[in-house]
Amino acid sequence: MSDGGDEKLSVEARLGLVAFTIDSEPHIRVNQDECRKCSLKQCLFVCPAKLYTEEEGEIKFNHEGCLECGTCRIACPKIDWNYPRGGFGAHYQYG
Ligand code: SF4
Ligand code: SF4
Prior knowledge:
- By secondary structure, the chain is an alpha+beta fold.
- The chain has helices spanning 11-15, 32-37, 43-46, 71-75, and strands at 19-21, 28-29, 52-55, 58-61, 80-81, 89-91.
- It has a domain at 42-95: Alpha-Beta Plaits (2-Layer Sandwich), CATH 3.30.70.
């Protein structure tokens, strides 16, 4: 039973606290020509929000739900990575 102040939240519960203002323009883009040549496809494994998927041999990226953590930017130098435009993107709530 919680004493009301120090209850630990699961990762899923913490992610549920993140609100998003979705931009129509993606702030991150993949280069399909580079992806076709890529053997590791590390983007599929590093994103904590699992926003990269592979469908029929093509890498798909869904910018909605991006936590702006920068992990994919470090994992793959071929990704065109930018922060969302002002006012868009993730809004973190800390309590
Ligand atoms: S790691 Fe980079 S180059 Fe490779 S498939 Fe993913 S986005 Fe494309
Ligand atoms: S910045 Fe983080 S959350 Fe956003 S796509 Fe890259 S790894 Fe995923």
